[in-house]
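Worked example
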Amino acid sequence: MNRPNILIADDQRDVREALRLLLKSEGWGCTAVESPAQALAAARERQFDVALIDLNYTRDTTSGAEGMELLAELKAFDADLPVVVMTAWGSIQVAVEAMRHGAGDFIEKPWDNARLMSVLGNQHALARARRRGQRLQAENRLLRGPAAEGFIAESASMRSLLERLARVAPSDANVLILGENGTGKGVIARLLHDASKRAEASFVKVNMGGIPETVFEAEMFGHVRGAFTDAKTDRIGRFELADGGSLFLDEIANIPLAQQPKLLRVLEDGELERVGSSRTLKVDVRLISATNADLAAEVAGGTFRKDLLFRLNTVELHLPPLRERGEDIPLLAQSFLQRFAQRYQRDDLRFAPSALNAMSAYAWPGNVRELAHSIERAVLMAAAGALDASALNLNADSVAVGAGAMGAVPAVGQVTVEEAEKRMVRQALEKTGGNIQRAATLLGLSRPALYRRMEKYGIE
């Protein structure tokens, strides 16, 4: 476990040094400053677990006004930062007032070491519990939202993505989702919106590859009547439609170079003008974008602006391809089978072992989209109750999942699903020298999932 970091603000050098030595001996990392301005600067540079601040500084040594101002500014900057205030004996009323304005607790000078460490430890533990609760709440919202229907994330790579998504979703940070075609970038964008503070507002999706350059401004920013020949009425653009909510720009790499500065200006200033109007409008939009392109290469090639990329990718989420989500393939397949069997009144259908074996061995170059299409086609064309490998009509030349790392997977029909899985687990453990975490990553499994399979097949 990482040691907690504390910000100490006090204008007396001997107090700062005494606190630093005490906390260092207790395993805390310390940053000690002498003024409110330095405290704010430190808080902007790094994240702290707790702040311990004096209420009185050089400007006013009795009223606590400077400390109250610092408290308000720290809480405005980071509402979740626990702040403990220090005050001289006889100034308890000021400390109580500070607690009414967001302080977690107070300490009297001179302090008792045991009480000080107890207060700081409690505030740190409470803050950690709140953060865990926020992450769980965000993740629960993800899994309850409209986009979560059929959302499956049991593999290690997807659980890691979900954890990052839960951390960033409640913020207003712009997010760039990267991933191959068919991996579900649109689903992730919707999950981000549903877990954000903007969930009740609009989620507006725009396919940037489907907007001709000649109407880009009118589509994105709107236009007024008479702005051009076909402008018979005023029209609201996509940014205005998403005001207060989230705007999802899919295939962001397709924005024409000449239009990129116009998009950048809106992202920087939150301001736009409709085509044909000089009136400036303010918009509050959280931008989510996605692409399967290598934007760094596009920047190097001069087809994508570097400053625009910086605005888009405050946070990047990398969506793994289906071939790296081995544990999710049979779960996704069963989900799609249920959906399409219900849609086409084929409730009698099920997967034969050969079909499950084939899907696990297939590389899925079209990712989740290809899996869904393959199963929908099989459901439509199936003549019998069991869907076998031939019903899926998969390309036998495609590389098997994990084949590049662990060797070839046995051909369909030669072994059962269980035998193939047991062999892959053994190969992964041999390749990684028995390292459970590395073997789990190689197989696209979580550690608990790998342990369950080892126990199932008697592998030690």
Confidence is low (pLDDT under 50) at residues 399-415. The first strand starts at residue 5 and ends at 9.
